[in-house]
């Protein structure tokens, strides 16, 4: 058996599956998932430029500034400030190819974006999730669903227009 | 790892995400070998179960065994949901064998596909994870004798497959 052990099939969990798993475990998490009419190679680099992309599609963010950026194994760790309703909220960010998780300090808010090539890379499967990962916040899910649906619609429109 | 578990139990989403990243290689091996084509679904279901129930894990040091139990359960479940009719192990002897190429993953996959999900689970637990027959029996909820006989048949399938 030992000669075949290393050849056994291995399952994988892509960025979208990883985001779904996390979302399913947080009671207030709401997410929108769908296909963007833009190639993955174009869509993800645009999304990953958070200072440009987030204020354009996220209805709650007026401005986003990257305060610090450092490399971590296979990812970048960022410290950002997202201005919403006139208040700059600090977030810790982990940014990978196809995956971005942003958690506000004191876990007041969570934003997650995940993307995978679709249709041979000609289009992009995208998931956008927001949550308040604190106990007793499950009732916020309905409100957050409206927020992420609106964000996703904005993003889909931008993608169709070539960003 | 124990620190991650403690933070995940407090609801720290970044810690939960880091926990998933740390466990992905192991869960991928278990789910891939047992659920085969449904391995990716099994893996997602495993992590949903792990993260939803992480607060019930009282002792962080028990994480690996706890995750193993969930991964095996979800992989067997996914394989059964999507599968192929039950396999009669005795029928394996009559399965026509294509020319053998020892170096191909496809061969291993094809041989595993001729076993039932629970036989694949036993193979994974014994030959990949190194559990004893008693431990595998306890995890799968079957008598030790059943593990022994299923393991024997599963290994025989591999041996026959690789015999010239």
Describe the protein's topology.
The complex is a heterodimer of chains A (163) and B (164).
Chain A: H1 2-5, H2 15-24, E1 30-36, H3 40-48, H4 50-57, E2 63-72, E3 75-84, E4 87-96, E5 99-104, E6 110-118, E7 123-131, H5 141-160
Antiparallel strand pairs in A: 1-7, 2-3, 3-4, 4-5, 5-6, 6-7
Chain B: H1 2-9, H2 13-35, H3 39-52, H4 63-81, H5 105-113, H6 117-128, H7 133-140, H8 144-162
Helix pairs in contact in B: 1-2, 2-3, 2-4, 2-6, 3-4, 5-8, 6-7, 6-8, 7-8
Explain how this protein is built.
- The complex is a heterodimer of chains A (163) and B (164).
- Helices cover 31% and strands 37% of the residues of chain A.
- Chain A is α+β, with helices and mostly antiparallel strands and 163 residues long.
- A seven-stranded antiparallel beta sheet of chain A has the order 1-7-6-5-4-3-2, with helices on both faces.
- In chain A, strand 4 and strand 5 form a beta hairpin.
- The longest helix of chain A has 20 residues.
- Chain A starts with a helix and ends with a helix.
- The model of chain A has no long low-confidence stretch (mean pLDDT 93).
- With 164 residues, chain B is mainly alpha-helical.
- Helices cover 68% and strands 0% of the residues of chain B.
- Chain B contains eight helices and no strands.
- In chain B, helix 3 crosses helix 4.
- The longest helix of chain B has 23 residues.
- The radius of gyration of chain B is 17 Å and the shape is globular.
- At the A-B interface, helix 1 and helix 2 of A face helix 2, helix 3, helix 5, helix 6 and helix 8 of B.
């Amino acid at each position: 058996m030992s000669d075949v052990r290393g050849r056994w099939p291995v399952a994988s969990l892509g960025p979208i599956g990883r985001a779904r798993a996390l979302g399913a475990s947080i009671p207030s998490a709401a997410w929108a998932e769908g296909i963007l009419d833009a190639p993955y190679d174009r869509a993800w680099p645009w999304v990953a430029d958070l200072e440009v992309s987030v204020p354009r599609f996220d209805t709650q963010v007026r401005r986003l500034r990257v305060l610090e950026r450092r490399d971590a194994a296979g990812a970048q760790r960022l410290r950002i400030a997202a201005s919403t309703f006139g208040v700059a909220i600090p977030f810790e960010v982990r940014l990978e190819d196809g995956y971005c998780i942003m958690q506000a300090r004191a876990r007041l808010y969570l934003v997650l974006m995940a993307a995978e090539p679709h249709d041979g890379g000609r289009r992009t499967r995208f998931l956008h999730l927001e949550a308040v990962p604190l106990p007793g916040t499950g009732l916020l899910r309905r409100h957050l669903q409206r927020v992420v649906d609106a964000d996703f619609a904005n993003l889909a429109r931008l993608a169709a227009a070539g960003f | 790892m124990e620190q991650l578990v403690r933070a995940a139990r407090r609801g720290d989403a970044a810690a939960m995400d880091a926990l998933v990243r740390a466990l992905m290689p192991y869960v991928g091996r278990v789910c891939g070998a047992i659920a085969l084509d449904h391995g990716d679904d099994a893996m997602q279901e495993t992590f949903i179960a792990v993260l939803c129930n992480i607060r019930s894990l009282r002792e962080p040091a028990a994480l690996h065994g706890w995750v193993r139990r969930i991964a095996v359960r979800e992989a067997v479940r996914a394989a059964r949901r999507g599968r192929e009719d039950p396999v009669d192990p005795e029928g394996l002897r009559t399965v026509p064998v294509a020319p053998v190429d020892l170096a191909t993953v496809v061969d291993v996959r094809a041989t595993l596909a001729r076993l039932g999900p629970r036989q694949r689970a036993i193979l994974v637990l014994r030959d990949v994870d190194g559990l004893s027959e008693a431990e595998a029996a306890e995890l799968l909820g079957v008598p030790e004798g059943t593990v022994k006989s299923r393991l024997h048949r599963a290994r025989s399938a591999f041996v026959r497959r690789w015999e010239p």
